[in-house]
Amino acid sequence: MASLRVVVVGGGRVGTRTAELLDDRGHDVVVVEEDPDRVEALSDEYIATVIQGDATRPSILEQAGLDRADALAALTGRTGVNLATCMVATRLESGLETVMRTDREVGDEYAGFVDAVTFPERAGARATANAIEHDVQTLTEATGALDILEVRVAEGAPVAGRALADVALPRGSLVVSDAAGDTIAGPETVLEPGQSYVLAVAPDVADEVMNLMRG
Amino acid sequence: MSHGEREPAAELGLLDATMIGMGAMIGAGIFVLTGLAAELSGPAAILVFALNGAVTAFTGLSYAELASAIPKSGGGYAFVREIFDDLASFVMGWMLWFAYMIAGGLYALGFAPNFLELLHVYGYVPPPGEVGAVALPVLPAVPAEVALAFVAVLGLVAVNAVSTAASGSVETIFTAVKVTILLVFVAFGFLSAGGGGETSFTFQNFDPLFTGEGGALSILPAMGLTFIAFEGYDLITTVTEEVKNPRENIPKAIFVSLGATVVVYLLVVTVAIGTLGAPGLAAAGEAGIAAAATSFMPTGLPVIQNGGAVIVFGAVFSTVTALNAVVIASSRVAFSMGREGQLLPRFGTIHHRFGTPFLAILGSAIVMLGSVVLPTKSAGNMSSLFFLLSFVVVNGALMKLRRERPDMNRPYEVPYYPVPPVLGIVLNLLLTGVLVEYLFRTDRLALALSAGWIVLGVVAYYALERRREAVGAGAPVDGDLAEEGGD
Hints:
The complex is a heterodimer.
Chain A: E1 5-9, H1 13-24, E2 28-33, H2 36-45, E3 49-52, H3 58-61, E4 71-74, H4 79-92, E5 97-101, E6 116-118, H5 120-132, E7 136-141, E8 147-152, E9 173-178, E10 196-201, H6 206-214
Chain B: H1 14-25, H2 28-41, H3 45-69, H4 76-83, H5 86-121, E1 133-134, E2 142-143, H6 144-162, H7 168-191, H8 219-226, H9 232-236, H10 246-284, H11 288-296, H12 307-339, H13 358-371, H14 376-404, H15 419-442, H16 444-472
Antiparallel strand pairs in B: 1-2
């Protein structure tokens, strides 16, 4: 496998962790950060080349080597700065994939402007909820608001022991497979109590689905 | 990236990093090349090593700055890749890879005569030069030294192909052993002064200083030949990700290893010339230091019998450990290039069972094994030539980065910029010119092989380019659909 080259804008908590994770996976990371103290801390981490400056300035951003970069993740704490950075980056290098950090739910408002949106506070909230509630686990964050969940069917829950054909799940939810991932769920799939299933769920029907699966 | 899927924890201290750099430099270079340098330039060999230390120090500064700013364990190739376009960085990696592989051949060739000398000291074989060829029933007779060198490369390649690299602490012990043996050599050499023996240390051996044809200029080709003895700092930068507090320790390790190496070299060369004399050293060739040692070390010791045997053992041990270091270094360069998509992506993969860059090691082994049939001097010259050229590019990368990325954070900065990198480029090019001219006069085979390697590289580059386009267009290419990073 070839390594990716990723530009991470913002060397705060989210940016540093992201850079670390990518470096651990063998990718090539460049961090752009304005604050001298953070730059120093990043150099000590020795995980990425660091460019010191304001990433919304093209002259600074170009120094991250955009021409060879595969992706740029704008992860400062300010949504406006992140958006500006992504816009400048795609103007400089049109094929670049951009990921923008937001500080609130934005849905698909920026779909035409950036390739992906990440909302770390929500991811943190999910991880926390996962840690508290063992029988329902968020697997990943799909683009937009959909959640992919792994849910264990509780004994005596409304759907326990029933085939999918007999269950009316709300619109906006779908059982994808059993947790083993062997087969795609079909109408004949039986929701066995104690077994886990992978579901795609829209946030507004999540509580309803939980009620069905967990009782 | 190091061997294995797990990033090694940062565990190398300043001492370990320094020893890794010294380990590659101390030993093989000095044991193998001193005799050859004396042959070229007589007693002025002492100047050769001193001046080479000075020349290479400029590039050492560049390495320190780049390694502090670019946290990648790919050696000089990684730094050049950061700023130069595809073709330029490919050629750099290609050259550095070759330099390490040929260095492997050189160390193996230095190992063989010293090993025979060791056997000779204990009376197992007749004196070197009288050892016959190894006759195998199937093959034509091969000279014993070539066969030994071949076996040495094969053995170390096998070890490295199926097991991950030894830790830094082992390297530290190895290097300490080498330095200790050399210091014993130096001490006894100086003590022999005034002993009245035929090879007692005397400064008369340095008079006249310049005996080579061409007077003072005769040191230039010798500098080219021995330049490889100072390439250890590139090795340090192949393990930077494993060093504790890298921002401070890597520049320090580069300077300390370079400084300590130069000091040890100068002491050893002084003693070797002061005792055996330049003509004697020249006659002994690759086993020059060992020959000098057997001439003045005490004999009749318990167990080891002959004090010279300690030094000969040192030479054998040094060449083997240095060979091991360049087997790892060459495979790391190939591995980095594979990861960057500049060689076949498979070079950048780790073996599913052994956890080593298996293919990168095997690929490097082919050239190494082929190079043991070369004369030692040709191998030394070729390896030096490619290190010189690679270091020119590294200095260029430093300057290009300074110009194009002024805001890149540089925890260590080269002082008096731009003087050191410019001097590094000019001096390295000067030595390159001298070396090429010298090879043209005396060793056209080495020159032709070097040129051939570059040509082969350009062909390989465009072949890979075609292959990449094919992959990009979605055409299956021998079933190896790797994700290509960048284009």
